[in-house]
Amino acid sequence: MRVVVDDLSGPRIAEFLDEHVRQMRAITPLESKHALDLDGLRRPEVTFWSVMDGEAVVGCGAIQRLDEAHAELKSMRTATTRKRSGIASLLLEHILTEAARMGFTRLSLETGSAEFFAPARKLYEKFGFEYCEPFGDYKPDPHSVFMTRELPENRHETPIMIDNVPG
Question: Are residues 101 and 160 in contact, defined by beta-carbon separation less than 8 angstroms?
């Protein structure tokens, strides 16, 4: 498996993200869905990674710059057929390393409060995220949970693997 910076131009990642948005819409009321679509993920303040197993997209995640020191984790997803196989941990560790390398000192996220999202919340807790109040433009929402963690400054570890390849 490899983690690659993805320009979101390929059909595989478009299909993968479409499935993600459809699943979020089925679980979460529309007014509480905060998943970005392809255009939102292509904005300059977003860095997007895909996890590739051969030619298959098996996971993805992104960070969106909120300000010079603070970023938001977005669009974390593992392929349904690959859940609980370590992909999310691999990707989250990669994103934490890269966010610190980019100079961010805080990474925050919004996820769902429903039982469906319990494994995600457990993963984030395992990686040091703590529950917090809404941040950025978020408002309190019974369908949302907010988490945050500090990042070490000037981290210079070697990334797992970064390629700039079309999706």
Answer: no
